[in-house]
Amino acid sequence: MSSSPALPLSPAAPRSRWRQACAAVLQDPVMLGSLLLLLLLVAVSVGAPWLAQHDPAALTPRARLQASSETYWLGTDSLGRDLLSRVLYGGRLSIALAAMVSAIAVVAGLVIGLAAGYVRRLDAPIMRLMDGIMAIPGLLLAVAMVALGGANIVSMVTAIAIPEIPRIARLVRSVVLSVREEPYVEASVGAGTPALKVLWRHIMPSTINPLVVQATFVCAAAILTEAVLGFLGLGFPPEIPSLGSIIAEGRPFFQRAPWIVLYPGIFLALLILAVNMFGDALRDRLDPRLSRKTKG
């Protein structure tokens, strides 16, 4: 009796990018730890309306400068406001502002970098403009723009995002300059493919990895810049809690009530540390040259 021919085995389906990303995170303890810390800080900040036991703007003069207790877990400030509520709401404000700054800077920098790197006649004028913006200290430019536009969310996001755009534009431009000389790009151009389609299908995908890494560093820089502006008194109004303004308000009472400065400072430091560590680990994972150096 003749046996039936064996059916060809179908090749194993490649793992999805989501599974590959999860496996990469689990294999890297630094990336996993920083990601968990970042997710924890984001969760408690986003959940501030449910986790905060008191209104962050409610004044309780009788409870001013109280230490940690069952009623006020992190104590109170000089006006009797609950410090835990103010730190959580301040963290939510910093995270939301950093996300908006990162999105605006990445999109604007991507468009400018693609134009400068692909269109040769636009390269020189665009890069000279970017060099001019980078010549101005970012904090000084942010202070000037906030002073002119007022302390509102639009002026704050714009003031913090503009100094970050040239850095992303230069990064994207360098990637475009190296990719546009590849044979598959030249073949696509020679076949008469429109420029926008070449940028979208062949060049822009090569910028995704460095942009993702750079976005994390922009987030950390935005959080720190917003805190500095708040500390200098150029941030949001006093009724809106921010980490920088909380630290500034507690500075005169540091010797008597050090928790007013320590707790928001620790939260701010952990938030920036988690973002930077995750960005470093992500860069090492996405950059094959760094991976080879590490293995070597």
From TrEMBL:
Signal peptide: none annotated. Residues 95-279 form the ABC transmembrane type-1 domain. One of its GO terms (biological process) is transmembrane transport. It is found in: Cell membrane. One of its GO terms (cellular component) is plasma membrane. Gene3D superfamilies: MetI-like. Keywords: Cell membrane, Membrane, Transmembrane, Transmembrane helix, Transport. It is a multi-pass membrane protein. PANTHER family: ABC TRANSPORTER PERMEASE PROTEIN, OLIGOPEPTIDE TRANSPORT SYSTEM PERMEASE PROTEIN APPC. Belongs to the binding-protein-dependent transport system permease family. This is Glutathione transport system permease protein GsiD. The lineage of its organism: Bacteria, Pseudomonadati, Pseudomonadota, Betaproteobacteria, Burkholderiales.
